[in-house]
Amino acid sequence: MKEYQTIEEISGPLVFVEIDEPVGYDEIVEIELPNGEQKRGQVLESNEEFASIQVFEGTGSINRDASVRFLGETMKMPVTEELLGRVLDGSGRPIDDGPEIVPDDRQDIVGAAINPTAREYPEEFIQTGVSAIDGMNTLVRGQKLPIFSGSGLPHNDLALQIARQASVPEEETDAGDEGDAGTEAADATDVDEAASEEGSEFAVVFAAMGITAEESNEFLADFERTGALERSVVFANLADDPAVERQITPRLALTTAEYLAFEQGYHVLVILTDMTNYCEALRQIGAAREEVPGRRGYPGYMYTDLAQLYERAGRIKGREGSVTQIPILTMPGDDDTHPIPDLTGYITEGQIYVDRNLNSQGVAPPINVLPSLSRLMDDGIGEGLTREDHGDVSDQLYAAYAEGEDLRDLVNIVGREALSERDNLYLDLADRFEGEFVDQGFDTNRDVEETLDIGWELLSTLPKSELNRIDEDLIEEYYREDVATETGDETGEGSEERTAEAEA
After folding, report:
1. Count of CB atoms within 10 A of residue 177's CB?
2. pLDDT tens digit string along 191-227?
């Protein structure tokens, strides 16, 4: 431990100290003020003469008389299973008036990179209870799937909904197989199910960065009201907290998640909101360090910095648990070419779009499934994971909704009366898709069976001949003839009305 009383300069969140020997990068520092108050910081740069320190609690009361102690270690997060149910600030200190946390271990917040050969490919379904995600852009264990939103949109409500509803459904055995091969397959599934049950406890790590006090109160009230706090660890960095603290909040959260996943066997869902505030903190600190800026003033290393966070999601061979990430970011000006969503898209495995037009129509959650994508969806759905018809239903709904969207543009030009009966079926399906499938409110929790059943109810408004993306056997099993009959009657009546109007 080295101690100095040689502060030379204070600039924004940074303190520059004269030293007589180099200190380590990211080394933790204690700054003691003349009145006995202590603040923590972290070494950003050092050479043989000076060290620059970013102070977590802000530099407001620091002066040249303060003492600076270099502790000789990097920042560590005290971890224990007892963190579940606790609320911490952005620096990892409890703020919920609960008992003192006695850690089982103290782990480096930077985290060790997962060896690529030790990674297990992400698969198996995580149910969020949100049809637009579960049915159309499925989240898979070990995946990183960001939510792209905009200022003023209800992404926080969606984040809370996912946090309280997310679960890992039990795997189902295929009891209908016959013969030795079928028995062996069923036995193998039983073994997999037993292994899954051993490590199938589910936990949520929720890290909020740069939020207002009002938003923080809403988050905590919702967690307590719904009982979701019992299986969650919440980190809250407020808007008036130092920008430097915002840099370490997601690292503390991910370190906690890795401990719960890889040492305690939990399947952990990490929700990071709002990554835009995190990147703004990077830009602010980069400016204080007088770094050469990159695109739109953000530091040139922002891609690497984001990758260090996002790549901590995954599964490890031989370990029961998994870390799945849902980073949430607000796109400035709803621009998805902005550096933050642009770089995030390069690193992650898809995106969920929160749409301003759907929100203005009262659709909740206002998820636009057409530009949304989950690149690992095919590995997490299907027989034994969700249901055998999941992939086909999703593909057909995409195609039908996309055609309905195109026809809406045509209606604005020629009017609905000029369209064929087939076109009107697709227009009706697009309206019902938004009103019945996507729009479920922020308090409704749908399992995947209910989501797929709603999908079949919508698809059954089309003739079977239009379902060209679904296997014929699945059509015979799930197609709703009663819905098709009702639709046919309504279409006939509507056609007669439109014909009469045209003649008049």
Report:
1. 14
2. 344 334 444 589 999 999 999 999 999 999 999 999 9
